[in-house]
Amino acid sequence: NSTRGYPKAVGLYEQRLVFGGTTAQPQTIWMSESGLFNSFGAGPDDEDSIVLDIVSSEVNEISWIAAGRDLIIGTSGSEVSLEGGSSGISPSNIRQRIRTYHGSKPQQPVLIREEVLFVQGSERKVRTFRYDYNIDGYTGEDLNFIADHITEGGDKRVAYSQEPDAKLYAVTNGGKLL
Q1: Per-residue model confidence as pLDDT tens digits over 37-86
Q2: Which of 29, 44, 93, 117 falls between 20 and 30 A from 143, CA-CA?
Q3: Residues 6 or more apart in contact with residue 84 via CB below 8 angstroms
Q4: 3-state secondary structure 111-133
């Protein structure tokens, strides 16, 4: 509500509507009941809704939510994965793990195949977030490490176009299109 705040991030994962971060609860995730996007009834059953605080040593506001191999939560200080067991996430079977410590700008990430692309909190870097089977973990590579100067002043927004040619576009705070 207007007093406690509205969710800053919204997503869908395993037939659940996911809300993240309000003014009063910046690190909280709310997941609807399985298959019922407008029902948030709490309980112990697997199909019941889930309320979870993203745990860290400092307050990291939720910036975005993305569905990948796991449910990925971008916060102001880290990127976190939420995962469940073989039958998926449930109130009795959910685990959170901090995967990288880059921090994210509050804007919806771009999903390209198995990768999540997001703007780092400093607004100077576009990063990937993907699962790497070779290390059995997630990586967060810097996509503009060769040309850091092009994002001087910060990225305002990123978007992806698949056709006619796959391209990532970025608009800088100065109004340039990259």
Answers
A1: 988 888 888 888 999 999 888 889 999 999 988 899 999 999 999 988 77
A2: 29
A3: 90, 93, 94, 95
A4: EECCEEEEEECCCCCEEEEEEEC
Distances (CA, A) of 136 to 34, 114, 115, 128, 158: 28, 15, 15, 16, 28
Which two three-digit tokens encode residue 70? Answer: 């796991």
Which residue in the block uniquely carries the two structure tokens 């939510």? 65
pLDDT at 54: 93
Q: Are 30 and 54 in contact (CB under 8 A)?
A: no
Phi–psi pair at 38, nearest 5 degrees: -110, 15
For the chain, give the percent of residues with pLDDT over 70. 100
Kindly state the average pLDDT of the residues 83-101: 87
Q: What predicted TM-score, i.e. pTM, was given to this entire model?
A: 0.86
Determine the residue type at 19.
Answer: F
- Cα dihedral sign for 117, 121, 126, 127? negative
